[in-house]
Automatic annotation (TrEMBL):
Occurrences of domain HD (ranges): 223-348
InterPro entries documented for this protein: Cyclic_di-GMP/3'3'-cGAMP_PDE (IPR052020), HD/PDEase_dom (IPR003607), HD_domain (IPR006674), HD_GYP_dom (IPR037522), HDIG_dom (IPR006675), MASE9 (IPR048430)
PANTHER family registered for this protein in UniProt: CYCLIC DI-GMP PHOSPHODIESTERASE TM_0186-RELATED (PTHR45228), LIPOPROTEIN (PTHR45228:SF4)
Pfam family, one: MASE9
Protein name in UniProt: Putative domain HDIG-containing protein
Biased composition (Low complexity): 408-434
Transmembrane parts of this sequence: 7-27, 39-62, 106-135, 147-167, 173-190
Record has Phosphoprotein as a keyword: no
Source taxon at top rank: Bacteria
Keyword Zinc-finger: no
Source species taxonomy: Bacteria, Thermotogati, Deinococcota, Deinococci, Thermales
Keyword annotations of the record: Membrane, Transmembrane, Transmembrane helix
Length: 434
C-alpha cells in the first residue's frame, strides 16, 4: 500500500479497515475508574501507517452516526477525525524526514509514538475543552480524572498499531494480510475480557459493600450518611496525602465500611437513648474488632489489609490513648489515621443528643487543637488546607442538600450509641465517637 508508493486502495482494504473501525467503536473497552476507551485509536493509527494521510481521518469521521443528539455526535466524529488528521501529519513528517541512530532507522518507532501522542493530545484537549465549557470544572481536574492514566494505555497500544499495519503487509495465510491482522487481534480481544473481568470484580466489591451497609443501616439509620461523608472526607485527605487516585479510592471503600462491626452489637445497646454503662460502652468499643472478625473470611479475596486496618484501628489516637490496641503515632496504619480524622470531623459536625453539632469552623478548630494529641499533625495540616478549599463535605447541611437530603439533618434527634462518652470539650477526651 502507501509505504510502497502503491496508493490504490481496493474494495477489500476499504471493507476490512472500515469494518474494523466500525467494530472498534461499538466494542468499547471498559477501564477501571468508570473510564472506557474504544480501540478506534488503534485501527486509525494502523491505517495512518498504511495509507496516504487523508484516508484515515475520513475513516475516523464517517462511522457511528447513531441516534444520539446530532451536534454531540458531530463533535465526537469531528474530534476523532481531527485527532486522526494531526496524527497522520506527524507520521507522514517522520516518513519524509527519516531519523537515523547509527545503522538503525527510527522513523517508524518515533513516528508512531509521536503520532499516538498527537492523537491523544488533540483528542483529550477537545474533550476537556467541551467539559470545561459545559460544566465549568477546572481543566486540571477533568484531565486528571479522565485522561491521566488513559495516556498509558495509548502509549502501550501504539506499537501494536505499527504491528497491525506491518501484519497487513505481510500475508501469512491465504495471500491476504487481513488474516494476519485478525490473528494479532485475538490477544487484544482477550485483553478486553481481562479488563471486563477486572471491572466486574470491582463492581462486585462495590455491591458487597452496599449490601453490608444496607444491613447496618437496617439497624442504625444514621449510619449511611455518616459513612458516606466520612468516606468522602477520607478520600480527599488520602488524595492529598498520597497523591494517588487509586489509593484514595481504596481508602474511600474502606471508610464506607469502617463501622461495619456495629452489625454485631445488640440493638438494645447500639440504640440505647440514655447513658451507657461501662460494660455497654466496652461492647460498643468492640465494634472495631468485631468488624475485622466479621470480614475475615473475605480477607485477600474481596478485601485487602488496608480495609482491615481501617476497621480495626480507626479509633486509635496519636497519643496512644485510643482503642482497641492503644497504638501510638506512626504505629497506627496511615489509612486508619486518615479515616479516624475524617470520622472525628463528621461526628463533631453531626452532633449528638447530648451535645450540639459544632459549626464547621468550631470543628476545624477542635481538629487543630487535637493535632498531635488525637490526630497526626501532618494530616491536620493537610486537612486544614482542604477545608479552606471549601469542599462539599465541609458543611454538613450543604452536604446533605447536595446528596438529595435523603437522610435527616443533624438538627433532628439522632439515636445515640455512645452517650456516656465525655464531651469533647473536656481535655484529652475523644472527639470522635462513632
Ligand atoms: Fe467507629
Amino acid at each position: 500500500m502507501y509505504r510502497n508508493q502503491n496508493i490504490r486502495l481496493n474494495l477489500l482494504d476499504v471493507l476490512f479497515w472500515g469494518g474494523l473501525i466500525f467494530w472498534s467503536i461499538y466494542v468499547r473497552v471498559r477501564l477501571p475508574l468508570n473510564a472506557s476507551m474504544s480501540q478506534l485509536f488503534l485501527f486509525v493509527l494502523a491505517l495512518i501507517v498504511l495509507t496516504p494521510p487523508w484516508v484515515a481521518p475520513l475513516f475516523a469521521f464517517f462511522p457511528r452516526w447513531s441516534k444520539k443528539i446530532w451536534y454531540k455526535e458531530l463533535f465526537n466524529r469531528s474530534q476523532d477525525g481531527l485527532s486522526t488528521a494531526v496524527a497522520a501529519l506527524v507520521w507522514t513528517f517522520f516518513q519524509k524526514n527519516p531519523l537515523y541512530l547509527g545503522p538503525w532507522i527510527l522513523s517508524a518507532g518515533v513516528g508512531i509514538t509521536l503520532a499516538a501522542l498527537a492523537f491523544f493530545l488533540v483528542n483529550t484537549s477537545l474533550v476537556t475543552l467541551v467539559i470545561h465549557l459545559s460544566s465549568g470544572t477546572p481543566w486540571k481536574e477533568i484531565w486528571r480524572k479522565n485522561f491521566k492514566w488513559l495516556s498509558i494505555s495509548y502509549f502501550l497500544l501504539s506499537p501494536m498499531a505499527l504491528l497491525l499495519a506491518r501484519a497487513y503487509e505481510t500475508p501469512l495465510i491465504g495471500n491476504w494480510g487481513g488474516w494476519t491482522v485478525l490473528l494479532f487481534l485475538v490477544p487484544l480481544y482477550y485483553s478486553r475480557y481481562y479488563w471486563d473481568e477486572k471491572v466486574r470484580l470491582e463492581q462486585a466489591f462495590d455491591t458487597t459493600l452496599e449490601v453490608l451497609m444496607n444491613a447496618l443501616e437496617a439497624k442504625e439509620k444514621q449510619t449511611r450518611m455518616h459513612s458516606e461523608r466520612v468516606a468522602d472526607i477520607a478520600r480527599d485527605l488520602a488524595k492529598a496525602f498520597y497523591n494517588d487516585e487509586a489509593k484514595a479510592q481504596e481508602i474511600y471503600r474502606a471508610a464506607r465500611l469502617h463501622d461495619i462491626g456495629k452489625i454485631a452489637i445488640p440493638e438494645a445497646v447500639l440504640l440505647k437513648p440514655g447513658k451507657l454503662t461501662e460494660a455497654e460502652f466496652d461492647l460498643i468499643k468492640s465494634h472495631t474488632k468485631l468488624g475485622a472478625e466479621l470480614l475475615s473470611p473475605a480477607r485477600k479475596v474481596a478485601f485487602d489489609q488496608l480495609v482491615y486496618n481501617v476497621i480495626l484501628y480507626h479509633h486509635e489516637r496519636w497519643d496512644g490513648r485510643g482503642y482497641p490496641e492503644g497504638l501510638a503515632g506512626q504505629d497506627i496504619p496511615e489509612e486508619a489515621r486518615i479515616v479516624g480524622l475524617a470520622d472525628a470531623y463528621e461526628a463533631m459536625t453531626a452532633g449528638r443528643p447530648y451535645r450540639e453539632a459544632k459549626s464547621p469552623e468550631e470543628a476545624l478548630k477542635e481538629v487543630q487543637d487535637f493535632s498531635g494529641v488525637q490526630f497526626d499533625p501532618k494530616l491536620v495540616r493537610l486537612f486544614t488546607v482542604l477545608w479552606n478549599q471549601n469542599p462539599i463535605w465541609r458543611d454538613r447541611e450543604a452536604y446533605l442538600a447536595a446528596k438529595g437530603g435523603s437522610v435527616s439533618p443533624s438538627t433532628l434527634p439522632q439515636p445515640s450509641s455512645e452517650s456516656s462518652l465525655p464531651s469533647s470539650s473536656e481535655p484529652g477526651s475523644r472527639t470522635s465517637e462513632s
